Each structure stands twice: as structure tokens, then as C-alpha cells.
Amino acid sequence: MYVPDLDYYKDFGFRSDYIHDPNNVMSIYNARRDLMIAPDQLPLHQQVKLKRIHDNLTQEQLGKIVRLPASTISLIERGERRIMKNRWKEFETYLYEMWFCEGELLDRFNLEEEYSIKEIEEQRAYWKKELNDDPELWDAVQ
Hints:
This protein is mainly alpha-helical. The protein has eight helices and two strands. Strands 1-2 form a two-stranded antiparallel ribbon. The longest helix has 15 residues, at 117-131.
């Protein structure tokens, strides 16, 4: 496998002694260092910008997704304008349910449809019953 970034950046971001086989994807993946960023700790307007850039979308493309003009997206990303209440659902869907790669929508997740309350209650009851006899795990399942 050829990874052009390895040629250019060499050891930048990698622990070179961890790369056992440069032709093995997993060897390269395991040698990478973790990027020190915590997107959940950023203010919401910076999370929107970070995800838009990561998804390789323009402000115009994001504007079409959330039904706002690019100028408003720009103001929101700079923190000069708050997200309007009538657009919260669109931004929430974009941030937490849409998966993009190189500007293409790959998948859309909706966890509310996947898990019903009934299923969660059934799982909770099952684990309470299973863990009831283990005093170390009492109260582990709420």
C-alpha cells in the first residue's frame, strides 16, 4: 500500500519504531499518534466549523443542509450569531446523525429509530436480574 503522506511527512505524527511493515495498513494505523483535540469541549459554533471542514463541505453546501444562506453560516461559525431555534433540529441532525467523507454523504444515523424505550427497559431488566446475585455489581444498573 502506498501512503503519499508518509513520503512527505516521514515521521511527523507517527512513532516510526511502531511501523513494522510499511506495506501493512494496520502497522501504519497503529503507529500513528493521537491528535490532541477534544471537539466536545469546543463551543458549538466551533464544533460546526470543525465538522464542516472535516466533512470537506463549503459554507454554501452546509447552508443547503441546514437551510440557511452561506453568509449566516459564516456568522455562526465566527460566533457572531447564534443558531436560531427554528434551525436547531437541522444543525443537530448534521452534527450527530450525518456522516460525510470528501463532501459526500455516506450515511445517516438516527439512534431514536434504532432503539426503542421498550428495548432499553427490557435490557435493563435482564441485566438487573443477571447482576442481582453479584454483590460487587449491585446498583451498577440503574
